[in-house]
Amino acid sequence: MATRSSPVFDIDTLRRGIEGDTASALLSLYADDAEIRIVDRDAPPSHPKVLRGREEIGSMLDDIYGRDMTHKLEQCVLQGDHAAYVESCEYPDGVRVLAESMVSLRDGRIADQVMIQAWDE
Fold this sequence. Notes:
Number of strands: 6
Largest sheet: 6 strands, mixed
Shape: globular
Distance between the termini: 58 Å
Order of helices and strands: HHEEHEEEE
Helix content: 10-25%
Strand content: over 45%
Strand order of the largest sheet: 2-1-6-5-4-3
Radius of gyration: 15 Å
């Protein structure tokens, strides 16, 4: 009897989207009802910034990947229905940002993401 395998998270699309500054490629990795919680210097753990759904997430991705900066996927680990990845970014003036994400997957797409960002001061 044949078994039906679950869709697998596409790390190649993640890399192409991040390193190619392609928000639309990245948005294709998210479920329609996905949620992102962002913790950074402006949104502490007790009050994270929360984005719900592809429209809000797409607006954030358009903003980030529309900026004059470079992005690099440093590493990504995929295990079952979870993935974790590290992204490093640099603005032309040398300011750097490091973002780490832990994601829960459903049918090969991101359903829930926690992103922690650290910026040079």
